[in-house]
């Protein structure tokens, strides 16, 4: 299995621009998570999906952030408009439905907003 | 609520030294416990896990025992190598009011010197 695939690996954009991050989970995994990692705040859960349905989006910082999962093999995290404080590494992770299954992380997208 | 507390880093050791990274948790019910490792430029990877009290998880020379009486899951390795230099995250998973939660500690950076 190829693991969780994220794209792009790096994104540099100017403040005010729209940014879209993409994720392909491991085939057969029913849960998908979006995390943000910064030096100051560590690893923060933004949102997670179960069977393509958003279950908990309480970690989404504000309305500028939105996430979708149109099918079992694809999810996007969109920031519009982007701001410099959004600069971070964004991780996607997936897990199987089985109890106690671990999370499998992608290699992340490093976002820099100038 | 659920939370994970792990020791502040960085931890700097010489090669072949003994490693302990402390982790304690608070949780309702019976969580599963995990250690993840993150190498530079990569996502988190599962290192080991334990799903019930007194279970010992082990992998690549690392061990951790699920201690319900002390609510702890300390990570140990008898002889560290330079290649073990990374950030280590303690985590728990639990279901609360029908919502699945995966809680991470803040991470402990380990540096091993040759």
How do the strands and helices of this protein lay out in sequence?
The complex is a heterodimer of chains A (114) and B (114).
Chain A: E1 5-7, E2 10-13, E3 19-24, E4 31-38, E5 42-50, E6 53-56, E7 65-71, E8 74-79, E9 88-95, E10 104-105, E11 109-113
Chain B: E1 3-6, E2 11-14, E3 19-21, E4 23-26, E5 32-38, E6 44-50, E7 56-59, E8 62-65, E9 75-77, E10 86-96, E11 99-104, E12 108-113
Parallel strand pairs in B: 2-12
Antiparallel strand pairs in B: 1-4, 3-9, 5-6, 5-10, 7-8, 8-9, 10-11, 10-12
Q: What are its keywords?
A:
heterodimer; A: 114 residues; mainly beta; B: 114 residues
Rounded to an integer in angstroms, the radius of gyration calculated over CA atoms of chain B is 14 Å
Largest sheet of chain B: 6 strands, mixed
Note the beta-strand portion of chain B: over 45%
CA-atom Rg of chain A in angstroms: 13 Å
Strand content of chain A: over 45%
């Amino acid at each position: 299995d190829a693991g969780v695939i994220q794209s792009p690996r790096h994104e540099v954009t100017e403040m005010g621009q729209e940014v879209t991050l993409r994720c392909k989970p491991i085939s057969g995994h029913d849960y998908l998570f979006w995390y943000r990692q910064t030096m100051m705040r560590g690893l923060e859960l933004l949102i997670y999906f179960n069977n393509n349905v958003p279950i908990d989006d309480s970690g989404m910082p504000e309305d500028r952030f939105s996430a979708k999962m149109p099918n079992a093999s694809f999810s996007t995290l969109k920031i519009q408009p982007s701001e410099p404080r959004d600069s971070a590494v964004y991780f996607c992770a997936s897990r199987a439905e089985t109890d106690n299954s671990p999370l499998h992380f992608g290699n992340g997208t490093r976002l820099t907003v100038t | 609520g659920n939370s994970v507390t792990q020791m502040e880093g960085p931890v700097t050791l010489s090669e072949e030294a003994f490693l302990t990274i402390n982790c304690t948790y608070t949780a309702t019910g019976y969580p599963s416990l995990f250690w993840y490792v993150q190498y530079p430029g990569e996502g988190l990877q599962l290192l080991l896990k334990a799903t019930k009290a007194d279970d010992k998880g082990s992998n690549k020379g690392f061990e951790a025992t699920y201690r319900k009486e002390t609510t702890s899951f300390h990570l140990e390795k008898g002889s560290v190598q330079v290649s073990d230099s990374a950030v280590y995250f303690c985590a728990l998973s639990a279901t609360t009011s029908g919502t699945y939660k995966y809680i991470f500690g803040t991470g402990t950076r380990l540096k091993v010197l040759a």
